[in-house]
Amino acid sequence: MAAAVTSSRPYHVIIFGASGFSGQFVVEEVARYAAGSPGGGGAGGSAPLKWAVAGRSRQRLEDVLKRAAERLSMPELRTDIEIIVADVSIEESLDLMCQQGLVILNCVGPYRFYGEPVVKACIANGAHYIDISGEPQFLERMQLEYHTEALDKGVYVIGSCGFDSIPADLGILYMQKQFKGTLTAVESFLKFTCGPEGSSGHDATWQSAVYSFADSRSLRQLRRKFGHKPLPVVGAKVKQRSFLFFSKEIDQYTIPFMGSDHSVVKRTQRFLYEEDQQSPVRYSPYVGVGGLFSVVKIFCGGLVFWLMVKFSLGRKLLTSFPSFFSFGLFTKSGPTMKQIEDTCCSMTFYGEGYSEGSDPAQGQPNAKICTQVTGADGYVITASAMVQAAVTLLNELHSLPRRGGVYTPGAAFYKTSLIERLNNHSLKFSVKANISHSK
Ligand SMILES: NC(=O)c1ccc[n+]([C@@H]2O[C@H](COP(=O)([O-])OP(=O)(O)OC[C@H]3O[C@@H](n4cnc5c(N)ncnc54)[C@H](OP(=O)(O)O)[C@@H]3O)[C@@H](O)[C@H]2O)c1
Description:
Elements: E1 11-16, H1 21-36, E2 51-55, H2 58-72, H3 77-80, E3 82-85, H4 91-100, E4 101-106, H5 111-125, E5 128-131, H6 136-153, E6 156-158, H7 166-178, E7 181-193, E8 201-202, H8 203-214, H9 216-226, E9 245-247, E10 252-256, H10 261-276, E11 282-290, H11 292-308, H12 312-320, H13 322-325, E12 330-331, H14 337-342, E13 344-355, E14 367-375, H15 378-395, E15 405-407, H16 409-413, H17 418-423, E16 428-436
Helix pairs in contact: 1-2, 1-15, 4-5, 5-6, 6-9, 7-10
The structure holds NADP nicotinamide-adenine-dinucleotide phosphate (NAP).
NADP nicotinamide-adenine-dinucleotide phosphate binds at residues 17, 19-23, 55-57, 60, 87-89, 107-111, 114, 132, 134, 162-164, 202, 204-205, 208, 378, 382.
Keywords: Membrane, Transmembrane, Transmembrane helix
Domain Saccharopine dehydrogenase NADP binding: 13-158
Pfam families: Sacchrp_dh_NADP (PF03435)
């Protein structure tokens, strides 16, 4: 590790919320990385990754280390890894945790309820912060309220470093790098492929979605507070898709993807435009929902969800019975290991723009590109992306913007080797076609 730990700050990373469903995969990923890092039990060298787990229950943290030790055949995890007891509702415990680590990997969500005290404690105590939030209200509010303070303190606060929204945000940066000319518009199509037992998500993500939808009006108010000027529209008008359509690209019925990808990508594109005068890309994310039967299920479920989410009793019912109201898409126990092992996903990007030497203000786009980001199940991608983001921060701190602040992954890491690091781990970035017609 390039960043050095000290006797008073002894850990490179601390996984907060290690006992959670996502936290357990982050623990395994960090353990795997540390074992392979220089001096960490794998290749020789001098600076092994030092890490600890944190959470509110010592017993549950011991259990997670025990499970990870068994799964990875590393008995030493149970005895060697430090446990830090910290609770979001006890400020001093967060301060103590943040004083001991260079980077806090925050897996405690829903972030709208639990995230802010951790961000605050990190900034106050000089620890960098990385999370896997997919909640635009939380992510954008942290930027609005804490960017200046984080910048002043030299602390990086980097949200959405999981499945939401590393593939989309870095996928577009990758496409911009591969495209010869000015890329102006991109559509992405997310497709899941699961095994015979299907796939599902964990309850906490369902809860995050319920409260995000219920509170979508506050996002509009929040965005007005930034006082941003609209981003310039570069290139010809993009044809609008209908809400539901059959996508030839992924051979499925498709709807707009309602996670944080659009919000995160737009923030990154704004940052790159303001910081580096890069031409902003218009982005439309879609997700495949399958065949006609799935479409009917999603529309019935979506209608019930949309009606219920507006009332507190409706929200109580939705969050109490996730499996029933999501037709089994989200469950209190989360996906089984077999489901996780059998699931993979791909995000295919279709971009258009103007080849080198052509003026985007004149005529129609004359160049197209297709790229893809592929990986395993969302939880595997999330853990790996979060850990690689932390490793990049620790090793390439001087390539991050300014001296600190609140950033999207794309804004924080656009000058680093994060895409290459991910390519060696959980996500494969590739070009499928790059076609330029004329100048
Ligand atoms: N971006 C993505 O792609 C992505 C992917 C996966 C998850 N996520 C998000 O990550 C978050 C966590 O998801 P999950 O499925 O792992 O949830 P989870 O299983 O419910 O885990 C939540 C964790 O938070 C801890 N926690 C709760 N209240 C706490 C408190 N007051 N103080 C300290 N720790 C507390 C829990 O500790 P105990 O064990 O003690 O209860 C547990 O470790 C959610 O917001 C989810 O939406 C995002």
